[in-house]
């Protein structure tokens, strides 16, 4: 080990420790908020009476959150939705965002400012060279009661731009897939891409965009059919996300859709991982030298991603080992004490920018993968 | 261990996603196969016309000669494969190791494929009914009746989403190259061997490598091939066939429900046909769509079932290297057990009897695979569900049914061997549109004449005969 490596290791160790202390303190602070009569939401106050411990007294750090039962996302189905609004925030304008809902009752999450905070933090990770301040954006993703649409729009506004959007109903897309109506599916995808190309070629000076892998690919192919390309229409920064964001897909996108790595093709693409419950986990820079490996880090202390044993969700796996994704959300607006996500991956070590655990190789959890429709838009 | 790349119009591409092919009984890795993502396929297929243009520069007669040369290379040559080479013996061993098919059956399938390559001139002559093959290249021409004819290629390439469990089906896509169409193949996950070796043989015989695309991958790769190629084949189960029924772009090959019918005029001499029946059920471990899954007669069905059970019931599991091995392994965990569960449920139906029961357990489970030993079931009427079953092992139901109800009750039938001299019955069978291949007389359902079409004529699938008129002074002047 050369001396510089030693300094980095020491620095990382101290940052890791500081981050852990911050997480523990933040956890205790959140307990004081989510379980105090004057601030808590009705749901957690009611739940508190069923617990065999007192969250205000017995939770002294992040590890103590294991005392809670795992969060069941079914609790989010159905109303009254106000039971999730902390009383201390009851007079604030409140949004409700939904996930699922192709059939049955969707899961609802109330939000006041979390999506703005999450995306402002994410904004700080974007390189201005490729995501220029003041540039306009295209949101090539789901519309309707989704957090993502408003969040991307806020990101654009926060960076001084204006966000253009398309109409895209993912619930209809899932129905088409389940019905096997592939012609309709392709027609609907084309309808979405046509909207995007119309906007991109209408002189709006759009430089940045959000797109899912499937839609980004379809957009690139649609532009190629018109003898143009993503770089040629002026896009320089792309933020994307989803379990379909594999190393091979990223390599293909960089090499064949975006004209090469950013310094060659002029387009920077960053993967993210997240959902309505958690927020947004950012990736380490993805490079050809590292075989396009994608490693995500949650926005601690507001949210934590752990990789836990398939058999014991209280047990974090070793570094490099495979496990299921467990999310914890600790914001003033929403408390999720350990939710088993429908994904799995490998536990990764902390690094200087994000001195806490990360996760790589995120993919649908093998136990439910066969029943889950992923990457539909 | 071999590393097999994606082949993008002849150029190897090593993917970051790799699938490991393992030996079905030891788990030992045999090959690492690069996986193509759907987008790569979609983009590559935009250049498909270049494959046809390239092949059209080589006369069909010349391509046939190269294909015939490829037959020898495929069967006997040491060929480059991925980052290594492969001898015929290695091919047989590798294919057996990943598919569970006994080695002698792999060798037989190899012989079948090279036979088709070697006789390509006759096969095309028969399938085109003697057409001057230059007409396919040019798109039009004189056939000798003083009328201009035209055959228009419906796709620059033929796509195929291939199976893992039946190496015999590869004969179906072999005519594409001499017909001057490129090949876009998505190999089965456990059987990359035939497509890779066949392409290597073609290239070694002088067919330009840029006309071949090989896309190993998951379901996304298969979907990309089917949606991006105007004419493609897919091999799958009944749901796959149902999904693509009526789609002119896709030729779906699924279960065959092939049958032997014994006419009332011959059924009293049923013993004469036990060999034909047993071979039809058992050959190639009963895996093919052309294997017989139903034997229908109006009487003596108990005795027929008993005789077949005595012949096939004792067949036991042998190592895949044993020349006497008659059974292929189920290599996907849980499949054999699930099939056995379905059969057990069917056996509860009144009037249904397991005739092979006395010959020991049918389900044989091993640590990493399982086998199902041959089964003969008797049904005393055509009504029970078991009469409409087909499985990937030697399994047949002997069905008692009045002859006059055969046509109404047999259902879709890929190969029908009708052992009868009854002119009226033969006439009805000839007219029955739910029968594809019809054999009259004691021919095994598995005995194919390669000079005849299979599940539709591939020429009709790939080319469209259409009107083409030209003013006299222009005739023959077109470039």
Instruction: State the distance separating the first and last CA atoms of chain A.
Output: 46 Å
In the predicted model, the low-confidence regions of chain B spanning at least 5 consecutive residues are none
Indicate the percent of residues in helices of chain A. Answer: 25-40%
> Which structural class fits the helix and strand makeup of chain A?
alpha/beta
What is the CATH architecture annotation of the largest domain in chain B?
3-Layer(aba) Sandwich
Computed over alpha carbons, the radius of gyration of chain B is: 23 Å
- The overall average pLDDT of chain A, rounded, is 91
Strand content of chain A: 15-25%
Counted by DSSP, the helix tally of chain A is 10
Q: Work out the helicity level of chain B.
A: 25-40%
Structural class of chain B: alpha/beta
SSE run of chain A: HHHEEHEHEHHEHEHHEEEEEEE
Overall strand count of chain A: 13
Per the principal axes of the C-alpha atoms, what is the gross shape of chain A? globular
The biggest sheet of chain A amounts to:
11 strands, mixed
Describe the fold and architecture.
The complex is a heterodimer of chains A (377) and B (479). Chain A has helices spanning 3-34, 42-48, 55-58, 114-123, 147-158, 170-179, 182-200, 213-225, 247-257, 262-265, and strands at residues 95-99, 107-111, 136-140, 163-165, 206-211, 237-241, 268-275, 279-283, 295-297, 303-308, 322-330, 335-348, 358-364. With 377 residues, chain A is of the alpha/beta class. Chain A has an eleven-stranded mixed sheet with strand order 4-3-5-6-7-8-9-13-12-11-10, with helices on both faces. Chain A has a two-stranded antiparallel sheet with strand order 1-2. In chain A, helix 4 packs across helix 5, helix 6 runs antiparallel to helix 7 (182-200) and helix 7 (182-200) packs across helix 8 (213-225). The radius of gyration of chain A is 21 Å and the shape is globular. Chain A starts with a helix and ends in a 13-residue tail after the last strand. The relative contact order of chain A is 0.12. By secondary structure, chain B is an alpha/beta fold. Chain B folds into two domains: 2-254, Aldehyde Dehydrogenase, Chain A, domain 1, CATH 3.40.605; 258-440, 3-Layer(aba) Sandwich (Aldehyde Dehydrogenase, Chain A, domain 2). In chain B, 32% of the residues lie in helices and 22% in strands. Chain B is built from 16 helices and 24 strands. Chain B has helices at residues 38-44, 48-56, 60-76, 88-99, 103-118, 120-127, 134-138, 193-204, 219-228, 238-244, 274-282, 301-312, 335-346, 406-409, 423-431, 458-462, and strands spanning 2-4, 6-8, 11-13, 18-22, 29-34, 79-81, 84-86, 140-142, 148-153, 157-161, 182-186, 212-214, 232-235, 250-253, 258-262, 292-297, 352-354, 363-365, 370-372, 375-379, 395-400, 413-419, 435-440, 463-466. In chain B, a hairpin with a 2-residue loop joins strand 2 (6-8) and strand 3. The longest helix of chain B has 17 residues, at 60-76. The model of chain B has no long low-confidence stretch (mean pLDDT 94). The A-B interface holds A 180, 182, 186, 217, 221, 224, 246-249, 251-253, 256-257, 291-292 and B 15-17, 35, 37-40, 42-43, 46, 227, 243.
């Amino acid at each position: 080990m050369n001396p510089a490596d030693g300094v980095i290791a020491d620095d990382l160790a101290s940052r890791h420790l500081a981050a852990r202390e911050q997480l523990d303190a933040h956890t205790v602070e959140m307990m004081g908020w989510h379980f105090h009569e004057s601030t808590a939401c009705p749901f957690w106050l009611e739940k508190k009476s069923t617990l065999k411990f007192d969250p205000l007294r017995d939770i002294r750090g992040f590890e103590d959150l294991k005392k809670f039962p795992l969060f069941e996302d079914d609790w989010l189905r159905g109303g009254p939705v106000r039971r999730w609004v902390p009383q201390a925030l009851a007079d604030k304008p409140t949004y409700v965002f939904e996930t699922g809902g192709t059939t049955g009752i969707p899961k609802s999450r109330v939000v006041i400012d979390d999506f703005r905070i999450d995306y402002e933090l994410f904004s700080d990770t974007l390189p201005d060279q490729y995501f220029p301040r003041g540039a306009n954006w295209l949101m090539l993703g789901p519309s309707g009661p989704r957090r993502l649409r408003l969040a991307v729009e806020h990101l654009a506004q926060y960076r001084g731009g204006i966000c253009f959007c398309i109409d895209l109903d993912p619930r209809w897309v899932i129905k088409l897939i389940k019905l096997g109506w592939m012609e309709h599916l392709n027609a609907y995808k084309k309808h979405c891409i046509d909207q995007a190309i119309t906007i991109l070629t209408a002189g709006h000076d759009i430089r940045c965009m959000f797109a899912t892998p499937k839609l980004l690919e379809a957009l690139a192919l649609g532009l190629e059919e018109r003898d143009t390309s993503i770089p040629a229409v002026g896009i320089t920064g792309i933020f994307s996300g989803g379990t379909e964001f594999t190393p091979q897909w990223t390599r293909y996108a960089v090499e064949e859709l975006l004209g090469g790595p950013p310094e060659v093709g002029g387009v920077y693409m960053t993967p993210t991982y997240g959902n309505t419950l958690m927020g947004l986990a950012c990736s380490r820079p993805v490079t050809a030298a590292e075989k396009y490996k994608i490693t995500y880090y949650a926005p601690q202390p507001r949210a934590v991603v752990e990789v836990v044993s398939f058999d014991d969700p209280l047990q974090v796996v070793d570094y490099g080992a495979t496990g299921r994704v467990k999310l914890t959300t600790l914001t003033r607006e929403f408390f999720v004490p350990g939710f088993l996500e429908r994904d799995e991956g490998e536990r990764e070590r902390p690094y200087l920018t994000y001195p806490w655990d990360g996760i790589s190789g995120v993919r649908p959890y093998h136990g439910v993968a066969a029943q889950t429709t992923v990457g539909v838009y | 261990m071999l590393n097999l790349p994606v082949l993008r119009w002849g150029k190897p591409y090593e993917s970051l996603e790799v699938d490991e092919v393992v030996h079905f009984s030891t788990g030992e890795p045999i090959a690492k196969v690069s996986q193509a993502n759907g987008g790569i396929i979609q983009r590559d297929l935009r250049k498909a016309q270049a494959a046809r243009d390239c092949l059209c520069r080589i006369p069909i007669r010349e391509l046939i000669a190269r294909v015939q040369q490829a037959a020898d290379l495929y069967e006997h040559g040491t060929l480059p494969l991925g980052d290594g080479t492969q001898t015929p013996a290695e091919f047989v061993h590798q294919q057996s190791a990943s598919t569970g098919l006994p080695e002698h059956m792999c060798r037989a399938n190899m012989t079948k494929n090279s036979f088709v390559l070697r006789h390509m001139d006759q096969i095309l002559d028969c399938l085109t009914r003697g057409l001057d093959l230059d007409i396919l290249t040019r798109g039009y021409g004189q056939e000798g009746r003083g009328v201009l004819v035209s055959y228009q290629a419906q796709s620059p390439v033929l796509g195929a989403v291939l199976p893992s469990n039946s190496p015999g089906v590869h004969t179906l896509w072999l005519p594409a190259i001499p017909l001057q169409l490129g090949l876009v193949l998505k190999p089965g996950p456990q059987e990359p061997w035939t497509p890779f070796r066949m392409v290597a043989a073609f290239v070694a015989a002088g067919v330009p490598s840029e006309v071949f695309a090989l896309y190993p991958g998951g379901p996304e790769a298969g979907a990309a091939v089917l949606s991006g190629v105007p004419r493609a084949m897919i091999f799958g189960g009944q749901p796959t066939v149902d999904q693509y029924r009526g789609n002119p772009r896709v030729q779906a090959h699924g279960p065959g429900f092939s049958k032997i019918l014994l006419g009332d005029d011959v059924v009293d001499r049923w013993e004469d046909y036990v060999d034909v029946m047993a071979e039809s059920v058992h050959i190639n471990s009963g895996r093919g769509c052309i294997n017989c899954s139903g034997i229908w007669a109006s009487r003596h069905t108990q005795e027929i079932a008993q005789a077949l059970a005595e012949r096939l019931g004792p067949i036991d599991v042998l190592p895949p290297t044993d020349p006497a091995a008659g059974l292929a392994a189920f290599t996907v965990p849980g499949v054999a057990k699930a099939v056995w569960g379905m059969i057990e449920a069917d056996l509860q139906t009144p009037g249904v009897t397991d005739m092979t029961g006395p010959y020991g357990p049918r389900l044989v489970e091993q640590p990493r695979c399982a086998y199902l030993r041959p089964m003969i079931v008797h049904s005393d009427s055509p009504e029970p569900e078991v009469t409409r079953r087909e499985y990937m092992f030697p399994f047949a139901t002997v069905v008692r049914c009045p002859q006059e109800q055969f046509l109404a009750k047999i259902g879709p039938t890929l190969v029908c061997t009708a052992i009868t001299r009854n002119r009226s019955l033969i006439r009805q069978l000839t007219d029955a549109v739910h029968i594809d291949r019809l054999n009259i007389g004691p021919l095994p359902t598995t005995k194919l004449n390669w000079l005849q079409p299979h599940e539709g004529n591939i020429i009709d699938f790939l080319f469209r005969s259409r009107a083409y008129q030209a003013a006299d002074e222009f005739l023959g002047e077109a470039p």
